Amino acid sequence: KGLNRVSFETTLMRTMRKKLKSLGEFKVYKAQSTMYAEPMEEGLDIDEAFKRIQRTFGLAAVSRSCVVEKDFDAICSAAVTYLEKELRAAKTFKVEARRSDKKFPMNSMEIACEAGGYILSKYPHLKVDVHTPQLTVYVEVRDFGAYVHADKQQAVGGLPVGTSGKCAFMLSGGIDSPVAAYMMAKRGVTLMGIHFASPPYTSERAKMKVVSLAEKISVYTGGFVLQVVPFTEIQEYMRDMGPEPLFTVLMRRSMMRICEKLGNDYGCGGIITGESLAQVASQTLQAIACTDAAQSLPVLRPLIGMDKNEIVKISREIDTFETSILPYEDCCTVFTPPHPKTKPTLAEILAAEEKMVALPQMEAKAAAEIERIFINV
User: The pTM is what?
Assistant: First the structure.
């Protein structure tokens, strides 16, 4: 990121420390364009630590390494013992060496050749394949020691959370909104969740389903606050006072105004929704235009050009799909009209809202009576 690189890396290390804190003491530091998480206690759960780091935005690849002193015999011994399982399972291999400490007496090519010969002497079933090996043994001689590891595993990539500002995201309990939150967090956005609940039309189980989804999102994004907005009174008022075909758009506009209020309170620079163009009646171009006109914050729709299969694929990858399809009603489906208008005009929407004189006070009341739930990693 050019001149901003240091701030991105600092944010990333802070996120790594936060994710590992509950597992014990880890030393997290940067050296030579690589992030390190080093356990400082015996008996820490390294498997869980690896999993958490692998799901941290800002990292392209992760590997588990054995750290030894910068001695060639120690490096060879570590390679054949630390990677024993991988070496026994492979048929072909090669050694790649990197020597960033130029004081080490052997160059990279010499390290690779000699270490490869040593591994062959201990595992004679192996054959060297420098082009398409089943296993690559990496040896890195760095300033702080020598690192031995097998192939790197892909991480989630993206930008460190917190480097692209803060946004409020609407979490409905369906398939789309958790995916939208995940995708924007991947671009470095810090999240603040907002859920609209309509008891008794929506149940406590429906709310706990949303909390469960928020917890699954936090695995990638880090902890955040989820604000549950009581929305029943507003929906009943709209049902009684507004034109039925316009109900969905009127409801979405009300949600947007409340999101703007809560977002401003938290310093958010935008609102994230899980809308996909033309997926439902409230997501046509005309309906979206009417919805956006309700407030002034930018509305980010990362799923806007995706179809349902693409969204479901991501939801399965991030483990939200099975929770999202649990059969509990959310407030968006409670009062859905049988024949919603797909091409509303802003003029008719404003005319309908003008007759609902109590709506601003109801929205202010709902925003003031929120329930805050703190979602931790």
Answer: 0.89
